[in-house]
Amino acid sequence: MIPIKPNQKPFRQKLRKINPKLLPSIEKDVNKLYKSGIIVPIRFSDWISNLVPIHKKTGEIRLCINFKNLNKVSLKDNYPLPKMDNVLKRVVGASRMSLLDGYSRYNQISLHEDDRDKTTFTTPWGTFHYAKMLFNLKNTGATF
Known about the structure:
By secondary structure, the protein is of the alpha+beta class. The chain has four helices and five strands.
């Protein structure tokens, strides 16, 4: 769940202008996320954030979403992350273990149905929300 502070109103960011040179790369990444089922098209949402294309050192573009407003109204999860040595002690001698794919990270964890609307973002090709967990939300680290 993405817990929201009491009496907070949803926000809608308007679509920002995007450098036309970046559009093909951004569209390719959006299509990749869509085809893999990480994002889903949505027609109506009270929460809308913007894409923020970030230049990597390799010259590629990484898509980020501006969740600054959502993170401001989200309650902080106070559950501490367990220490790695305690986790390893608990799995010693176990006959089975389950691991998450470190490369895909958060994209393996489904978002709660009620929270997907809060992760809506807008693009020149439509409006989408996340069906899977994404990195830049306030409590993502504790969830993972």
